[in-house]
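Lab notebook, entry 417. We have the chain sequence and a SMILES string for pyridoxal-5'-phosphate, and the next step in the workflow is to get a structural model of the bound complex before anyone spends time on docking refinements. Request logged below.

Task: model protein plus pyridoxal-5'-phosphate, output structure tokens.
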Amino acid sequence: MNATEMKRQTVPNSGDSVQHRFAQSSEGLSSSEIRDLMSLASAPDIISFAGGMPGNELFPLDEMDRIYNNLTESEKQTALQYGPTSGIPSLLESLTGYLETKGLPVKENRLLITTGSLQAIHILARAFIDPGDRVLVENPSFIGALSAFRACQAELRAIPLRGDGMDMSLLAKELNSASPQPKFLYYAPNFHNPAGIIYSMEVKQQMIALLRGRNIPVIEDDVYSDIWFDEKDLPEMMNLKAMNPEGIDICFTGSFSKILGPGLRLGWMLVPEAIYRKCELIKQSIDACSPSLSQVLADKFIRSGEIYRYTARIREEYKNRGETMIATLEEHLPEYVTFERPRGGFYTWLQLPKGTDTTIILKRAIEKGVVFVTGKTFDPAGIQNDHMRVSFCNTDAATIRRGIPLIAQAIREIIEK
Ligand SMILES: Cc1ncc(COP(=O)(O)O)c(C=O)c1O
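Result returned:
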């Protein structure tokens, strides 16, 4: 018996007397060091720049009350009933209109309502990945997607991000050397989590040229694109799905989480017919349908036009927070910390001197009453730790002005000691 087998044999699972025979696919899922550290940071007065959730105070409570109170008896019955796996027809129709205003080719594809866009990513992962398959991801990348791909036992091949998107020369190298070819490429075009960047048109054109004719679908994860700060960026933010490149299957995923509320657990995928059919079967086996109550509310939110008024309102507030964050960082950070100025979304991504261990800085920051997320959380290999994600979504401007100097102090105390 080798050491690992010994451990499997003799170490009971947390508090259990029985050694469960869990599936190998669940082995990649572990509570990260960062989550354990964060549990230290639960004091009520801690300032958190760690979360990726909307501010509670920004939710459209009155509009939701009005929508619910105006539902007819039959709409309330629909809301409490199971619905079709693909989604409630009325929402599919209103969401089609909403996505068409963004130039997405809804009629030429199929829309599947999902339980958050994270479920859409999971379903696509299950549709394509066999254990050991390669998938292309960004470094850094959204941790939820990395976990979904790990759960399917994918081999993650990471392409570094630059200020305007994935490094295209490294993508070309990977595509030309990788054998067997990756099953798909996952990327987030707008206000990246955690990097904050948007992909330039040029990089997207190069991606199309590199991927055409290779039978490598793209998962385009676009949950932040409504939260832009400047209308001028909109043409640059055009989705690959809207460009509709011939010879590449683009699987677009989106969400109500950032434009209404993540508690609804409502997202969608917009995919070609053949991929849709596979994904609908997978979804059926997972949860049969997404919450009908959420779907009825979201449908009314779109049909009343409230979605447009609400996104305009929160855009202003996130812009205010983002600009306060940029100004405060520029005032307090030492010159050896650099970052791309966010043009929307929720995050700033700070680059510290090469080799810095931001976990040590996080420990110091927690002592000072402030938290952020360390870089390695978003590294597909879980190693590179000289960045930190500082979010501005869940703290108002005054709190940002109070908290950022504490992060700057923690950085100086560790690096300049
Ligand atoms: C890039 C990205 N994609 C997807 C999601 C998942 O969102 P949800 O499952 O709430 O729709 C998030 C959540 O933070 C995200 O940051």
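Notes for the group: The pocket of pyridoxal-5'-phosphate is lined by residues 52, 116-118, 142, 144, 188, 193, 221, 223, 255, 257, 262, 267 (CB under 6 Å). Worth checking against the assay data. The chain has two domains: 30-59+316-415, 61-304.
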